[in-house]
Fold each of these.
Amino acid sequence: MATTRPVIRYEQTADRQVNQLQRNFQEALRAVLDAEWLFGTDVRDLTFTAGQTRSVDHGLGRVPKGFIVIDAQTAAPLLYQSNAGSYTVDITSTNAGTYSLRFY
């Protein structure tokens, strides 16, 4: 399931200081929300043997911009993407292990 970006709302008030506080909050929150990897899909417990390439269903419905390893249960992750489509991505692992990935 993909995470969606929240809407940042602004309500004009008669108080100039409250309005400025809202604008400052919006700017700070926008900087956090621009981190694309926060809004993606997680695929957990993918088991690889050394040198194996797997086709993984990422669930985004579009070509992913990338992925990050969010958990490595065994060996140190050494993964790379070799092909990506709207529904699947081919991931090759240099090391054997079980990993969880976030696609964004």
Amino acid sequence: MKRRQLVLISLGVLVIVSVGGGVYRLWNDRFWPFATGTEESAFLRTTFGMSPPEVRRSLAKSKATLLSYEEYRRADPSPSIEIF
């Protein structure tokens, strides 16, 4: 009887930890229920309000990359973006 209870408790803890890990991954990567994008299309399959992980995933489908401002400055010595 004690062994059965221990197995059931261990299984319950494993399920709870697995569900928690799955929810954390969805939240951290901004997947489905935690997505931040709006319905308004921006460019290259992205939408306004997307988080950087969402934009990276979306741009990867178009074989494009998301650059930081410093990377963009190195790639283009005379950028068309100005910081005010």
Amino acid sequence: MWKLLSALLLIALILSNVFHIYLHLDHGVTQSYQSQSFSDLRNALQSYDKICDVVVRGKTEGELMTWAQRLSLDKEAFVKEGALHLQGLSIRLDADKKALECFHTEY
């Protein structure tokens, strides 16, 4: 009886260890893919910032508001502290209310 119980406990211990090793390997692979995805996203955002700077530079606040309305963004665009803010993207305005540059914000 004791031999059977010992054998069952040994098998349970080995199976649980194999399962934990599998979980750790799976977690490592998942983190690698997630890290690569974040890196790709960061690179894409940097590219979009450069494109945005070229596209909006020199546009007036009115033109930018019209674009925001045409794009039907979920949140309304608003001007605060010298920048036009729309859905995580902000466009810095100069004293003449013309666009200078784009930058990301979280509000």
